[in-house]
């Protein structure tokens, strides 16, 4: 038994192996990390280096056209004009509208939800303070809403409730632009462009900023593991002890008081503490690690029946040369504009995306998958040998459970990977022959390797019924849990998934508040 610890942070469970340049299932470009968190932890001083991408998006078309988008307004206008002059004029207004909504959401994201407190031992002073804090939250939110004006708020609620297809059809006429933008609404989820509420995820994916600029995405030098590395260095400097490869097998709860008293590691080591924060999924935390008899039935039922569905597969590829896209006349073997950002394959129309989704909804991996390709080694020379590159494929749609066959079957896995490579060949002939190695993470792999229930990268669906006061369960949105001293601080808590740091930062503020009122 180890000595008592002041607090214990339980990270996502599961084995972790180096996968080419990545050390986690998310090796996507970084944009959502909140500026406050970066400043407070001084992550740049601790080695975090962001490599901004411009252009940030490239959509090749089989008819020889292509669409580049990024932070350069003139480039955007020129590129969109190739498809529609009307859309070129509408796009800046669309971005301005989303920017307004992001300012409204910034306050909500930065704040713990105003949840009802369950502790009845609070003093009268603490109860009064809690009521005042909630009143302050709602009054501030009302003030922000009033600044928006009625028309903007109607548009905001339309965005929250509508399918992405409706929002984008109202703004634009060009299929390629709409499909490119629509990928943000469905990425990482078992949802289609016509799914009600998918419009909100359009907004979720443009929150955050890089270098003070909203909507600018960047690669992290050294891969996404460098984010964890910088945070760990900040923690070590503050006196934190970090254990790696130390899987938690149980969260210990006192049998009479119902308070958390520590954790038990897989090797039997006990760590005693009165505070435990878990950034594992809600299911992993409360179903697998917490003894079932200490949780209220309605809470446990809500956790078990939450939507953890996923249609995401990650393929990490090592290649001996950059892909050469047929639609681009000029090719730079060191990397051109088309290689800098996210490359959208199989996304020339929303109907194409919807068909891929409907196949997966019936248990069939998409015949023509929706692929988001990134090549971070074009900007980050630290992650691959000279002349070679690392390519990340974020693929949809792949159901967790196939109607025929199994992801355990090596032939099924190989066939799907080759299907993805062949689709890329249609846009960049010879891609398949450039592949020197790859590994693939299907939804069951993501669950097994990283503890992501159902393979869901957001720790649970991002529908409106699973956000804010409803995340992870109604009545428990403020990071506290039915087990006193146990807090949820990962993507399964408000405000949800994405490498933004908001759940952890907000949870830490709640823990500190509770320690002050002890």
TrEMBL record:
Query: Could you tell me where the Polar residues compositional bias lies?
Result: 23-33
**Database matches in InterPro entries:** FAD/NAD-bd_sf
Q: Where is this region: Disordered?
A: 13-36
- Gene3D superfamilies linked to this entry: FAD/NAD(P)-binding domain
Q: Which family does it belong to?
A: Belongs to the carotenoid/retinoid oxidoreductase family.
UniProt protein name: Uncharacterized protein
Species in which this protein is naturally found: Oryza sativa subsp. japonica
Q: From which lineage does this chain's organism come? A: Eukaryota, Viridiplantae, Streptophyta, Embryophyta, Tracheophyta
């Amino acid at each position: 038994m180890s000595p008592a610890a002041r607090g214990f942070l339980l990270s996502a469970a599961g084995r972790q192996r180096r996968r080419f340049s990545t050390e986690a299932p998310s090796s996507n470009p970084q944009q959502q990390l909140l500026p406050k968190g970066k400043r407070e932890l001084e992550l740049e001083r601790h080695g975090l280096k962001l490599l901004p991408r411009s252009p940030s998006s490239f959509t090749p078309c089989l008819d020889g056209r292509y669409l580049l988008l990024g932070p350069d307004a003139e480039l955007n206008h020129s590129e969109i004009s190739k498809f529609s002059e009307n859309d070129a004029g509408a796009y800046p207004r669309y971005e301005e509208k989303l920017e307004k909504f992001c300012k409204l959401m910034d306050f909500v994201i930065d704040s713990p939800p105003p949840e009802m407190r369950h502790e009845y031992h609070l003093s009268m002073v603490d109860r009064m303070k809690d009521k005042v804090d909630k009143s302050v939250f709602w009054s501030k939110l009302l003030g922000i809403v009033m600044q928006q004006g009625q028309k903007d708020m109607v548009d905001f609620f339309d965005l929250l409730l509508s399918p992405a297809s409706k929002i984008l059809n109202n703004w634009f006429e060009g299929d390629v632009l709409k499909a490119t933008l629509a990928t943000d609404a469905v990425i990482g989820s078992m949802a289609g462009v016509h799914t009600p509420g998918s419009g909100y995820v359009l907004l979720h994916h443009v929150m955050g900023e890089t270098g003070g600029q909203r909507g600018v995405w960047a690669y992290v030098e050294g891969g996404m593991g460098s984010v964890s590395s910088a945070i760990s260095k900040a923690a070590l400097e503050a006196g934190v002890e970090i254990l790696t490869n130390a899987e938690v097998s149980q969260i210990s709860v006192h049998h009479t008081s119902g308070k958390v008293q520590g954790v038990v590691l897989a090797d039997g080591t006990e760590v005693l503490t009165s505070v435990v924060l878990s950034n594992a999924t809600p299911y992993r935390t409360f179903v697998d690690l917490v003894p079932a008899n200490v949780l209220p039935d309605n809470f446990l039922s809500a956790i078990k029946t939450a939507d953890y569905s996923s249609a995401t597969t990650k393929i990490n590829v090592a290649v001996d040369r950059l892909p050469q896209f047929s639609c681009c006349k000029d090719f730079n073997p060191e990397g051109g504009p088309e290689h800098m950002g996210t490359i959208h394959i199989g996304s020339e129309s929303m109907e194409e995306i919807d068909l891929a989704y409907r196949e997966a909804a019936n248990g069939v991996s998409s015949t023509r998958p929706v692929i988001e390709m990134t090549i971070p080694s074009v900007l980050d020379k630290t992650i691959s040998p000279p002349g070679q590159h690392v390519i990340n494929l974020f693929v949809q749609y792949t159901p967790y459970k196939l109607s025929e066959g199994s992801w355990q079957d090596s032939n099924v896995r190989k066939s799907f990977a080759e299907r993805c490579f062949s689709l890329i060949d249609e846009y960049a002939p010879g891609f398949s022959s450039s592949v020197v190695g790859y590994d693939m993470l299907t939804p069951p792999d993501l669950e097994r390797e990283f503890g992501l229930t159902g393979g869901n990268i957001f720790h649970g669906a991002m529908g409106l019924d699973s956000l804010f006061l409803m995340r992870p369960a109604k009545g428990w949105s403020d990071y506290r849990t039915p087990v006193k001293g146990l807090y949820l601080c990962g993507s399964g808590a408000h405000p949800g998934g994405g490498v933004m740091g908001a759940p952890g930062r907000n949870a830490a503020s709640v823990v500190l508040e509770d320690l002050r009122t002890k």
